[in-house]
Write a structure and sequence with these properties.
57% helix; 3-stranded antiparallel β-sheet; alpha+beta; globular; 16% strand; 3 strands
């Protein structure tokens, strides 16, 4: 079970480098996926780009489910 500290350490929004690390891809590949509209959850806050952790985790689960069905 996740502790309160672990929940606090999980930011709702990830920097591109953090999202790429979660996906185990390069940052440039992450930007490529975002540009092609293949990766949801990107938002702009001023000039900063962030990726929603919740949307990213749901997308990963959907991708895994799609591969399991094949």
């Amino acid at each position: 079970m996740e502790t309160q500290k672990e929940r606090e350490d999980k930011s709702m929004l990830l920097r591109p480098a953090e999202a790429a690390l979660e996906l185990r891809i390069s940052r440039s590949k992450l930007y490529e996926l975002l540009a092609r509209g293949e990766l949801p959850g990107a938002i702009r806050i001023g000039a900063s780009l962030r990726v929603s952790r919740v949307v990213l985790e749901a997308w990963i689960a959907d991708q895994a489910a799609g591969h399991d069905a094949a």
